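User: Structure tokens for both sequences below?

Assistant:
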Amino acid sequence: MLQSFMYPFNNGYIEGVNNTTKVIKRISYGIKSFQRLRKKILWRQLVRRNAG
């Protein structure tokens, strides 16, 4: 707990990426091609990064 005050690092960004990936996987149930799912996830992250 004390470490959170000593260091300015956290894993919030990565947790957000993981959450977005899980939501996309859940919504995209039935996509047969892994490459298509991968491109969809990467595209969403690119859009998210450029929007904010």
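Moving on to the next sequence.
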Amino acid sequence: MHTRTSPRSTPVTERALAPDLARGMMLLLIAIAHVPYFLYTAPAGRVGVHPTEGNVADKIAQAFTLVVVDARVYTMFGFLFAYGIGQMYARQVARGADPGAVRRLLRRRHLWMIAFGAVHAALLWQGDIIGVYGLIGLLMVPLFFTRSDRTLTVWTAVLLSLAAASSVLTVALSSLVPDQDAVVPADQQRLSIAEPDYLASLVERMPVWITGLVGGLFGLALPAAFLMGLLAARHRILDEPGRHLVLLRRLAIWGIGVGWVSGVMLAVRHVGVSDIGSESALMSLHFFAGTFTGVGYAAAFGLLAHRLSGRSLTASSPVRWVSALGRRSLSGYLAQSLVWGPVLAAWGLGLGAQLSSWSVLLVAVAVWVATVVVAAVMERRGLRGPAEVALRRLTYRAER
């Protein structure tokens, strides 16, 4: 008679390289995506929060961020988040855990993620994404987790079709509504950052976080990326990239290619090289294409992991260091906020007022490098990330 066991956490030795490597590099993209928000004294354009002023180095930094980073990171994270859920479920069930107990564990984990996100937003950063993914997981897992591959594929196509229709509608309407009449998104995003009083900044942060929490669910891109991640986890395309090389190459080439083309069009418009199209239309296309680019990035790291699979990677290898950060991605993500707010915001040291697009990008890279080094040291000492430890204890507590 087979005895079901209680779910337990996954040992590091059982983890695949590709997802952790992708998560570690994703944190670099997240850092680059977030820091422009903290240039709170610079006049912002309609393209995200990128300043309308700056020298050649600033324009290069803005163009790079628009092409490579903006509207790509969150869908990549959504894909990897769902992939991790699929990995976790498969491992627990393979060890003999009851499938129903694992789904209850996932529900508790997602509820705690929402709580983590709320605290993160209240204390430091209104653009928190932990709560957004917790909410998506809380709602999407019961609806789709046990559905067939065909159902996941159909619903992914439906969500992407709706997102495409929304993008086309925006393009059509942009010819009727001049760009200068639209609301600049940076105004609301920067209210808490430009607020010198910390308690007042908290009041400004929470409504923005709540709006983002709901918007992430109904924005269609993240739910679609989530379903693609679940489907990919079932077929272990990142765990066993050698078996899926053709698919991974297609996802990487077409996903990244489409996104970078739309990014280049938006970048040349923003930096003033060309007046091609309207910003509203280009932004809409850019965000839609970003769904595929995020998945393309994940596929590219799967290909890289396959290339490295035949090599002996030492503990001092940069790949191992970045993967170590990927295994502590929640801690790494929160560590970034401990710099952005206290160092860059007006309620902290206010250094964001002294920086520009190129210099704040260097700050983002430097902070990411620091988290990589810390993660590598923790890996050598066998230490897990503090945020991962806290979330794991809260999630598994009822199973003990």
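User: Anything stand out in the second?

Assistant: The chain has a mean pLDDT of 86.
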